[in-house]
Amino acid sequence: MRFMKLKEVIRVTGLGRSSVYSFMSKGEFPQNITLGERAVGWLESEVLEWMQDKLKQRDETSFKR
């Protein structure tokens, strides 16, 4: 189990900072975890699962055409 900081989440997903927080507020992206007074992180496995779900959505959409 590993935590990812925001910069890594951005690098891995290709999302911008505001998109990460916007998707989180809509319940469409994993919630961050408070690591300390001024630090948050995301569970790597949850971010990777979110990415896998996006691939599945793409693949399901492309097969319907």
UniProtKB/TrEMBL annotation:
Pfam families xref list: Phage_AlpA (PF05930)
Regions crossing the membrane: none
InterPro entries: AlpA (IPR010260), Prophage_regulatory_activator (IPR052931)
Official protein name in the record: AlpA family transcriptional regulator
Organism in which the protein naturally occurs: Marinomonas rhizomae
Taxonomic placement: Bacteria, Pseudomonadati, Pseudomonadota, Gammaproteobacteria, Oceanospirillales
